[in-house]
Amino acid sequence: MRVLGPDHPHTLATRGNLARWRGEAGDPASAATACADLLTDQVRVLGPDHPHTLTTRNRLIFWRGKAGEATRVEHPAAAQAIESAK
């Protein structure tokens, strides 16, 4: 039996899928929280410009918007993404 660690790319991808399905199941606030937690780890492990990291930034902003928190940006990486888009 092979066990993947918490920083393995497949583990990170699974966390992203779980965050997405939390939102799809009707809990956008929980999805946003999960994305924020995941984003921190992805930036550390994969880097800030990795495609999966960028996808998580997008999903974080999306789920925060669905949760009614469209103007709230706490994560530095998400704030940087928003500033870069301006």
How would you portray this structure in words?
By secondary structure, the protein is mainly α. The protein is 70% helix and 0% strand. It is built from 4 helices and no strands. It has helices at residues 9-24, 28-45, 51-66, 76-85. The mean pLDDT is 87.
List the helices and strands and how they pair.
Layout: H1 9-24, H2 28-45, H3 51-66, H4 76-85
Helix pairs in contact: 1-2, 1-3, 2-3
Radius of gyration: 13 Å
Cα distance spanning the termini: 48 Å
Strand content: under 5%
Tell how many strands the DSSP assignment holds.
0
| Average pLDDT | 87
Which term fits the overall shape?
A: flat
Q: What is the helix content?
A: 55-70%
Unreliable parts: none
Continuous helix count: 4
Topology pattern, helix = H, strand = E: HHHH
SS content category: mainly alpha
Largest sheet at a glance? none
Task: Provide the descriptors you would attach to this structure in a database record.
mainly alpha, 4 helices, about 90 residues
Task: Tell me briefly what this model is.
The protein is built from four helices and no strands.
